[in-house]
């Protein structure tokens, strides 16, 4: 199911080149992947979020200075029976967010496994972010921020603690990914999903830019 969100502007930016990137979310079930995406795309949070079956597809657009970044977001299911399908979704992805629950050490350990898998099998230049979600439950913390920060630095990952419930660092983590992604000038009429290209410039191929920075 595709869901289009509104455009998010950064520093009052204006529309320029439009780049499209495939981004995948990975992590154990119930760490809040779908909640993070819902907060980012729609600005909403549901206390009881149904588990994703297979994967969900959503889009959201960010504006950076004179560049528009359109994310094609694949929110994968965390249940063990679906994990064998993950390579189908992260193949060709230019970015990934690996999510864990700061109140559950096991989910952090599993996040490390996902990072290793991405480093081994995903695109060589993939931008990987580590998100310690549910920071609003810090009183129940099982994973120290410093522990995750050191791990992220050792593996060249972006890292933030987030809260889909309070919106803490949700937009920020996507923004930092968008800033780090390469802005390739190669133009293509084909979509970016699964292409493995550094980025697809849609400036020439998409004249009807209803999601451009100048729209709301």
Summary?
This protein is of the alpha/beta class. The protein has one domain (17-180): 3-Layer(aba) Sandwich (Rossmann fold).
Describe the structure.
The chain starts with a strand and ends in a 15-residue tail after the last strand. The protein is 25% helix and 27% strand. The chain has helices at 33-42, 86-90, 105-121, 145-154, 170-180; strands at 4-10, 17-27, 55-64, 67-76, 95-101, 127-133, 158-161, 200-201. Helix 3 (105-121) links the parallel strand 5 and strand 6 (127-133). It has one domain (17-180): Rossmann fold (3-Layer(aba) Sandwich), CATH 3.40.50.300. It is built from five helices and eight strands. It is an alpha/beta fold and 216 residues long. Strands 1, 2, 3, 4, 5, 6, 7 and 8 form an eight-stranded mixed sheet that branches.
Overall pLDDT confidence: 80
Uncertain runs are 1-5, 186-197, 203-216
Q: In total, how many domains does the architecture comprise?
A: 1
Give the count of helical stretches. 5
Q: How many strand segments?
A: 8
β-strand amount: 25-35%
* Secondary-structure class: alpha/beta
CATH fold topology? Rossmann fold
Indicate the percent of residues in helices.
10-25%
Task: Give the C-level CATH assignment.
Answer: Alpha Beta
Task: Determine Rg (CA atoms, Å).
Answer: 16 Å
Using the 3D structure, state the CATH architecture.
3-Layer(aba) Sandwich
Largest sheet: 8 strands, mixed
Strand and helix map with partners:
Elements: E1 4-10, E2 17-27, H1 33-42, E3 55-64, E4 67-76, H2 86-90, E5 95-101, H3 105-121, E6 127-133, H4 145-154, E7 158-161, H5 170-180, E8 200-201
Parallel strand pairs: 1-3, 2-4, 2-5, 5-6, 6-7
Antiparallel strand pairs: 2-8, 3-4
